[in-house]
Design a protein that fits this description.
Distance between the termini of chain C: 34 Å
Strand content of chain C: 15-25%
CATH superfamily of the largest domain in chain C: P-loop containing nucleotide triphosphate hydrolases
CATH architecture of the largest domain in chain C: 3-Layer(aba) Sandwich
Shape of chain A: globular
Number of helices of chain A: 13
Oligomer: heterotrimer
Helix content of chain A: over 70%
Strand order of the largest sheet of chain A: 1-4
Chains: A mainly alpha (about 350), B mainly alpha (about 300), C alpha/beta (about 260)
Number of strands of chain A: 4
Radius of gyration of chain C: 19 Å
Number of strands of chain C: 10
Order of helices and strands of chain A: HHHHHHEEEHHHEHHHH
Radius of gyration of chain A: 21 Å
Strand order of the largest sheet of chain C: 6-7-8-3-9-10
Low-confidence stretches of chain C: none
CATH topology of the largest domain in chain C: Rossmann fold
């Protein structure tokens, strides 16, 4: 009853094509943005901001980028950590070596560097698919792990590959307190999510999905597999690179190559799969799930009053994590996004059963 | 030149270990089309079981004979791996029968995390010893040809012998037994095998058990050399480039691929590494695999990948 | 029967031979297709009909022979080139994009006409939005024509087979093709569905003047709607002419009824 589309007739293609055609959805998004931009900064504790919201926002952005490549274009990538690293270290170099460089520019330029490398590592995708492509992306991951450790130029001659940044500001506004960091990341996320959604519902998005679903038929229609795949890698690595820069600059403050290692790549892939492949919303769901889960698992024993030593706790976390992933893949392989849209379908009929 | 040969042998030994792990991959992929990311975790799990049983069994059952302890520990570990295989088939594989490859891949990643956590919960997370009585002293060979001879670890030689025996046993198993024939049928074509009455579920349990057995042997050999610890499962990730090189569906490919990668890594680290600041071992195998993927994706011995319209 | 005046030769297949390893799929096939006509390719299963279409489309590269389109000759076609030249096709096994809706599937057919670049699409407001709306109009006309309006937002994978075939046709039509290659468009359909599909095909040929090359097994349909017929058997051409001629050709009769080869 609440979610009916009754009376909402579209009289132009343009209104039918908009991102949120249903009025209730538009209201919901408006409320969500209000909560995100106003309520949370005012009401949330500093700890929540720093430990949950900021990582959630940045990882959502990275998951969004990865989803474009894996979910929409069907190209597997196990090297996402590498592209985050490139974005972070490149942004660091721009920021550190060019005096007076605005932060936003450094981050975007970092993203562009990531794009260049992303396109390079996308070239194998023109010849190989699936698991073979996955191994190729692993080459990117391990190579960048090594490069940022051993090639001194990248890290301003730091011996361990670790770098740090300080005194961040955006056009004069300092980015120091958790609220400021949160708002910066939120701003980036909202802008990128909008741009990504536009791409995905436009012609290039259909090209990506066509390549994903059946690339031979796509070629026959006149879609160029080369252009589609390379643009997917390009857009994806750009977003992931910017996310990497945000992760290093805003969340960590100082980092070393291990911050972007293969565990990070797996983590992002899990987000995208659990959240929902081929769904912008899915990226957010997945990021939320993966960010919140370890905290819940860590806290659970205490809530039940059972003390467990930290080593055992971390092993149990691994176990439960792995089991949950398998469970999720069995129960809903299309991710939380599918559960969400099924729930919305049911809601449209509510209170009627069918 | 002597040094070169030593490096070469060292590379061959490491490569052989990679081959053993890759063997497990290939077995599972051939029979069920699943890319088992969890192979490394299986190696760790099996090795942990073996190491701990070796400690515990004498205490629980009150005997001191080391050989008996080793035998019983091995048997126990085999049993454990069979149970693991059975659980994986029942709880995971059966439910994901028709899903896409990426889903199955993710599932094996989930299994990896689970096994790593579970193994350490059950068996502990220190570094454990495996001592199956392999002699640790080095020997010198080819003393006539090179001054001082070339240094080889006796342990490595024994390990190579064990691995060779394992491969021979597997070959016999596949070629000469009825079960082996059924496994080959399933590897060739699931549906056809099913239609002649081969029970797919049971076959998969057998395959994963055999892979588990191979993982155990790999774990024992490696653990005997380096000690059983968490990092074992990370090393196993190296087996991926090995199967790419050798061909995802080829057992001889896994072996030869492993040897090539092992030797290549060691040689490149010593001779090329210093030019780049060292440490190139972590990516050499993958970049080599990448090059292969661009020019010969099916690897040295794999079947050509054909896209059907 | 096509009521349009049949024009000059638009597609000319000359001496095409195609082999897969040791298997000869096509041997020395030559035939032509005239503009605005409905040309059927028939033959028993395995005769090489789909392979022939695949050669025209650039999916397979024949070892020998050439194909001319509007006077331009190619030894083998490139899929995108062929699409740009105005040749569209449906598939025997429905190569639809299962993850997308009907509307999106047909919109992919308009892809060649879309000119906005990546940045314009990212911003969407302005040039890209106008282009989407314009293309949507084209696609809606096709949806009306094929009578699938209620299904436009449905995921293609959820639709019944007959309707999926219509979407396949719609996607090909979206390319504004001059030549339409239809690979068994009526396979698996009941009588009513076949009548609908025949009507659509004839309407396309009638209203838009599209040349149709059609692979079909249903002899009734073939004899009814085609202007000329090519008959293949075991990769060789055994008949070429009007339906009436072909029906009386003794080689064709024995190929279908079966005499010892």
């Amino acid at each position: 009853m609440l979610y009916r589309e009754n009376g909402q007739f579209k009289s132009s293609y343009r209104s039918d094509q908009q991102i949120f055609p249903i009025l209730q959805d538009r209201i919901a998004i408006g409320l969500l943005l209000a909560v995100a931009f106003v309520a949370i900064p005012l009401l949330s504790s500093e700890y929540l901001m720093r430990a949950i919201f900021v990582p959630f926002l940045i990882l959502s952005l990275a998951a969004l980028g990865l989803n474009i490549l894996v979910g929409y274009c069907g190209q597997i990538s196990l090297g996402t950590g590498a592209f985050m690293a490139i974005g972070a270290y490149a942004a660091y170099n721009f920021q550190a070596r060019i005096p007076g460089m605005p932060l936003v520019f450094s981050l975007l330029l970092g993203g562009l560097c990531s794009t260049a490398v992303g396109v390079l590592f996308g070239i194998p995708s023109l010849r190989i698919k699936g698991l073979y492509l996955a191994v190729a992306t692993l080459a990117a991951q391990f190579f960048t792990d090594w490069a940022f450790l051993r090639i001194k130029w990248f890290t301003n001659d730091s011996s361990s590959g670790s770098v740090s940044v300080a005194g961040l500001n955006v056009f004069g506004i300092p980015i120091e307190s958790p609220v400021q960091k949160y708002l910066l990341c939120l701003g980036f996320l909202v802008v990128f999510a909008l741009l990504a959604k536009n791409l995905v519902r436009g012609a290039i998005g259909r090209e990506w999905m066509a390549i994903r679903d059946m690339d031979v038929a796509a070629a026959v229609i006149g879609i160029r597999p080369v252009y589609a795949k390379l643009t997917a890698f390009a857009v994806s690595s750009f977003i992931v690179g910017v996310a990497g820069g945000l992760w290093g600059f805003v969340h960590l403050g100082s980092w070393e190559p291990a911050a972007f290692n293969i565990d990070r790549s797996f983590q992002l892939l899990f987000m995208v799969i659990i959240g929902g492949l081929g769904s912008i919303m899915g990226s957010f769901f997945g990021a939320a799930f993966i960010v919140v889960l370890p905290i819940v698992l860590d806290g659970l024993p205490y809530w039940f009053g059972i003390p467990i030593d930290t080593a055992l706790a971390s092993h149990l976390t691994f176990m439960i994590f792995g089991a949950l992933i398998v469970f999720f893949l069995i129960v809903e392989p299309h991710g939380i996004a599918r559960l969400w849209s099924t729930a919305k379908e049911k809601l449209r009929l509510w209170p009627f059963p069918h | 030149m002597g040094f070169f040969l030593e490096t070469l042998f060292g590379g061959l030994m490491v490569g052989m270990l990679y081959s053993l792990i890759a063997l497990g991959f290939v077995l599972i992929y051939k029979a069920s089309g699943v890319f088992n990311f969890a192979q490394g975790a299986m190696v760790l799990f099996a090795a942990l079981a073996m190491a701990r049983f070796y400690e515990w069994f004498p205490k629980w059952f009150g005997f001191e004979n080391k050989i008996l302890a080793n035998v019983l520990a091995f048997a126990g570990a085999v049993l454990v791996m069979v149970v693991v295989a059975w659980l994986i088939e029942r709880l995971v594989l059966r439910k994901l029968v028709n899903q896409e490859h990426i889903t199955l891949l993710m599932a094996t990643l989930g299994i990896t995390y689970f096994l790593e956590g579970f193994g350490q919960t059950l068996f502990g997370s220190d570094i454990y010893k495996i001592d199956i009585g392999m002699p640790k002293d080095p020997i010198f060979v080819l003393e006539g040809m090179f001054q001082g001879g070339v240094l080889i670890n006796k342990e490595d030689l024994y390990a190579a012998a064990i691995a060779a025996v394992l491969v021979a046993l597997l070959a016999l198993f596949f070629q000469k037994t009825a079960t082996g024939r059924a496994l080959r049928a399933v590897a060739d074509d699931h549906q056809a095998a099913q239609s002649i009455g081969i029970p797919l579920g049971r076959i998969w349990i057998i395959v994963w058990s055999v892979a588990g057995f191979v993982a155990l042997v790999a774990g024992v050999i490696w653990g005997s050399k380096l000690g059983v610890q968490f990092s074992l499962s990370l090393v196993a990730l190296k087996a991926l480039p090995v199967v790419i090189l050798g061909g995802l569906t080829s057992v001889p490919g896994a072996i030869i691929g492993g040897l090539i990668i092992g030797v290549g890594e060691k040689l490149s680290e010593i001779y090329i590494g210093p030019m780049f600041g060292g440490g190139i071992e972590i990516w050499f195998a993958y970049v080599l695999a990448l090059v292969f993927l661009l020019f010969r994706p099916q690897g040295l011995f794999g079947e050509k990948i054909i896209d059907r319209v | 029967m096509a009521t349009r005046k049949i024009g000059e030769v638009i597609l000319d297949v000359k001496n095409i031979s195609l082999r897969f390893g040791g298997v000869k799929a096509l041997t020395d096939i030559s035939f032509d297709v005239r503009e605005h006509e409905v040309r059927a390719i028939i033959g028993p299963n395995g005769a090489g009909k789909s392979s022939m279409l695949n050669c025209i489309n650039g999916v397979y590269a024949p070892q020998e022979g050439s194909i001319s389109f509007r006077g331009q000759t190619f030894s083998h076609m490139n899929s995108r080139q062929v699409a740009e030249m105005g040749v569209a096709r449906t598939f025997q096994n429905l190569a639809l994009f299962k993850g997308m809706s009907v509307l999106d599937n047909i919109m992919t057919g308009r892809n060649l006409k879309m000119k906005s670049n990546l940045f314009q699409q990212a911003i969407r407001w302005g040039a890209a939005e106008r282009e989407e709306t314009a293309q949507r109009q084209h696609v809606e006309r096709i949806i009306d024509f094929l009578e699938i309006q209620p299904y436009r937002k449905t995921a293609v994978g959820k639709m019944p087979y007959g309707l999926q075939k219509r979407v396949d046709l719609g996607r090909a039509l979206a390319m504004d093709p001059q030549v339409l290659l239809l690979d068994e468009p009526m396979a698996g359909m009941n009588v009513e569905e076949k009548q609908d599909m025949s009507r659509f095909i004839l309407d396309v040929n009638d209203e838009f003047g599209t040349t149709i090359v059609l692979i079909e097994h249903d002899m009734g349909v073939v004899m009814d709607i085609s202007d000329r017929v090519v008959v293949l058997d075991y990769g060789k051409k055994i008949g070429d002419g009007t339906p009436a001629d072909v029906r009386q050709n003794p080689d064709v009769i024995s190929a279908y009824l079966g005499t010892s080869h």
